[in-house]
Write a structure and sequence with these properties.
heterodimer; A: alpha/beta; four-stranded antiparallel beta sheet; 8 helices; about 30% helix; B: mainly alpha; two-stranded antiparallel sheet
Chain lengths: ~270, ~500
């Protein structure tokens, strides 16, 4: 860690005894388009521990999405390395990456990204198909997951027949299909109303608390912050600040910081 | 809860059956969208199928009619060969043709009373000359100008006869390496020098032939067939069966042989043409010769008009000469012959014949077909690229969920193949129906009598295969694009 540490807390004490799940080491990403070079990430060092619930914030253009893609194994850094459970993702070939995405990481998208031609159950079962789990086992597991997110009676509905909150819950069930150890959520509540967002929060919190699923969540939703362990703020391609959520005071629906990305849905 | 340590292996491969069912699900829901792509395949395959079917139909009907007309045709040849005036040029052609017809040289020898050896020699000579003529006719303009200037075919022998002209010609020919002389040069020279002699001998043979035919006519006249005429056509039309039998005996004595069945067919045919001629003559000689009359006679389609006999003015004229029954008979005869001739012409138009070699599609049709296939493939590629652009989020999400590049590629190729199959089957059926309708209009019931079931079944299989192949080939690039799509596209918000 550099001397001008962005951490507002005693990291050594916090990290003590916690196994590392994701480690970003001097991650840089530059895009070169013709003569123009864009520095999306200018050097990020971060450790995320098993069972942790981390929120990532940052204005648009800060490199937050790029960073997110890096730790999700969706993009590769120009410099530096990303380790998941001490596996260097740069060392993996396409099939191994697919394996990793399939079983170890669950993705939750802002726009849900459900397959519109499939029913809720079929959507949930899709990652199991990729993992080689078929038939009754997949069906039983899919139904259990839908029940887990409170949609057992909606298993035969297609995405268009469901509300946004129900779609996102289906997406969560799908992300959990292969029992991932890491859940990556990209603004999961940004498209949802207050009540539906609350439902999603509750499910994620329970997953983290009861089942020890590590969650990394890009969000501007302060309710999310309350249940998380740490808050990482990204500014201009680097980490601006890392705080423990318990140190953050939230008042009047905005954060106790200079962050402008308030909660538009409230 | 114990979280397992990450153990990274290669991704599980999805069995083909599972990939197939996943793909079917997508297609079923995107059916309307796929219809557009399908239309392109349907059109191209329908075009292919209709071309193939029409070709098969024309071949089958042509073969059928050929078989039906075999006797009639042979009788026609019989008359053309034996009773028409023969010029030396006709004789030369007949000699060339005789080279490939077993028995014909002997017949020629029998009729003309020339020795078989002489006939053989003339056949060989005429064949050589035909070869030389073909050689000169097939030359490209440049080579021909270089070799013989702008001399016409009939003057070539005269041009090449003098020694110096021949030396000049053979010297030039030697330097045109791409050209093969039609025969060894010494032989070539001999044929050129022998031309005058050969022409004279063929002319003699033609004269002998003519003499023989006239002699036959005289024999017929001597036999007193009742009318004192040597007009064979009149004999056939007017002669009763006893007279005809007498005539057949006569011609057999003279060395001709044709079966009585053939002769009967000849009879019928001549009856038709004689009737037609008669109608024409009656119309021309009619007293009430007016403007419509002239116009009517100048019309090339007059046979058809006469056949229908539905023009009141024609009927008026003819009724003065013939009874109603005779008119009806003429009409029937002409219609029958006319109908068959129309079909034959249609068949000949469709069946491309290159030196007797029959190919399924003409080069022009093949060209059109190739263009339609290229357009079809471009269309499919384009539609497929569009579909992939529209589905980028779905594809990227699948990749996030663990789909490999190969799986995505498979999905799109399977989809393309299924689309190709559907389009191929639909296009095949449409093309079949269209070609049946079209060919029914041309060939009438002949089509159903000689329906080429096997050929059409084969064409159907080929068309469906072509549909699948076209669609799959056209989708290789778009599918590859899809398989290469970055999974992080799933995160993008529109």
């Amino acid at each position: 860690m550099s001397t001008d540490s962005p951490m507002d807390y005693d990291h050594a004490a916090y990290a003590k005894g916690k196994p590392i799940l994701v480690r970003a080491h001097r991650v840089k990403k530059t895009y070169i388009r013709g003569a123009e070079t864009t520095y999306a990430l200018t050097g990020i060092d971060l450790e995320i521990f098993r069972g942790e619930y981390v929120c990532v914030m940052g204005p648009s253009g800060s490199g937050k999405s790029t960073f997110f893609n890096m730790i999700g194994g969706l993009d590769s850094p120009s410099e530096g390395r990303v380790f998941i459970d001490e596996v260097d993702m740069a060392q993996l070939n396409a099939h191994e990456l697919a394996f990793l995405r399939c079983r170890k990481i669950g993705y939750i998208f802002q726009a849900y990204n459900l397959n519109t031609v499939m029913t809720a159950l079929e959507n949930v079962m899709l990652p199991m198909t990729f993992a080689g789990v078929h038939g009754d086992e997949a069906r039983a597991r899919g139904m259990a997951l839908l029940a887990r997110v409170g949609l057992a009676d909606r298993w035969s509905h297609r995405p268009k027949q469901m509300s946004g909150g129900q779609q996102q819950r289906t997406a969560i069930a799908r992300a959990l299909a292969n029992r991932p150890s890491l859940l990556l959520c990209d603004e999961p509540t940004a498209n949802l109303d207050f009540a539906s967002g609350g439902e999603v929060h509750r499910i994620l919190r329970d997953l983290n608390r009861d089942e020890g699923v590590t969650i990394i969540c890009a969000t501007h939703d302060h309710k999310m912050l309350k249940v998380s362990n740490r808050l990482v703020e990204i500014e201009n391609g680097r980490i601006g600040r890392i705080r423990l959520s318990q140190d953050i005071t939230i008042h009047g629906g905005s954060l106790g910081s200079d962050d402008e990305g308030g909660d538009a849905h409230e | 809860m114990e979280i397992p340590v990450i153990d990274v292996r290669a991704q599980h491969r999805i069995p083909m059956g599972k990939a197939f069912s996943l793909c079917l699900k997508g297609i079923a829901h995107r059916f309307l969208r796929s219809l557009l792509t399908l239309m392109v395949i349907v059109l191209a395959v329908a075009f292919f199928m209709s071309l193939l079917c029409e070709s098969f139909f024309a071949h089958a009907v042509g073969l059928g009619i050929d078989a039906e007309n075999l006797q009639e045709r042979s009788s026609q040849r019989f008359f053309a060969d034996w009773f028409e005036m023969v010029t030396p040029i006709d004789m030369a052609k007949r000699l060339v043709a005789a080279a490939s017809l077993p028995g014909r040289p002997a017949e020629i020898a029998a009729v003309t009373k020339a020795s078989p050896a002489e006939v053989d020699a003339l056949i060989a000579g005429a064949t050589d000359e035909a070869k030389i003529m073909r050689f000169f006719t097939n030359l490209d303009a440049g080579s021909r100008a270089a070799l013989v200037g702008n001399t016409a075919n009939e003057d070539l022998y005269a041009l090449l006869t003098p020694d110096d002209a021949w030396n000049d010609f053979s010297g030039k020919l030697k330097h045109l390496y791409a050209l093969q002389p039609p025969m060894p040069m010494a032989h070539f020279r001999a044929v050129i020098l022998g031309h005058v002699d050969l022409t004279a001998r063929i002319a003699t043979l033609a004269g002998a032939w003519q003499q023989a035919v006239i002699g036959l006519g005289e024999s017929v006249a001597e036999a007193d067939l009742g009318h004192g005429r040597t007009d064979y056509q009149a004999l056939f039309v007017r002669g009763d069966s006893a007279q005809l039998a007498q005539f057949y005996t006569l011609i057999k004595v003279r060395g001709f042989s044709e079966s009585p069945d053939d002769i009967a067919l000849v009879h019928r045919q001549l009856a038709v043409s004689a009737r037609q001629q008669e109608v024409r003559e009656r119309l021309q000689s009619d007293a009430a010769h007016t403007a419509w009359h002239t116009q009517f006679l100048e019309d090339p389609a007059i046979d058809v008009k006469m056949a229908s006999l539905n023009d009141a003015r024609v009927v008026d004229v003819l009724e003065q000469h013939w009874t109603q029954a005779e008119l009806a008979q003429v009409s029937r005869l002409i219609t029958e012959g006319d109908r068959r001739r129309t079909v034959e012409r249609a068949v000949d138009d469709r069946v491309s014949q290159d030196d007797g070699e029959k190919s399924l599609l003409s080069s022009r049709q093949a060209f059109l077909l190739a263009i339609s296939f290229v357009v079809c493939m471009v269309g499919i590629s384009n539609a497929m690229l569009m579909a992939i652009t529209e589905r980028f989020r779905e594809i990227a999400t699948m990749k996030c969920l663990g789909a490999t590049d190969g799986f995505i590629l498979n999905q799109f190729l399977i989809e393309a193949a299924i689309q190709g199959l559907a389009g191929g089957v639909a296009g095949m059926l449409i093309g079949f129906v269209l070609s049946v309708l079209k060919c029914t209009a041309i060939f009438g019931t002949y089509l159903y009598v000689y329906f080429p079931l096997l050929g059409v079944a084969g064409a159907g299989c080929i068309c469906v295969a072509a549909g699948v192949l076209l669609s799959t080939l056209a989708s290789i690039y778009p599918s590859w694009m899809a398989s290469r799509m970055a999974p992080m596209e799933a995160m993008r918000i529109e």
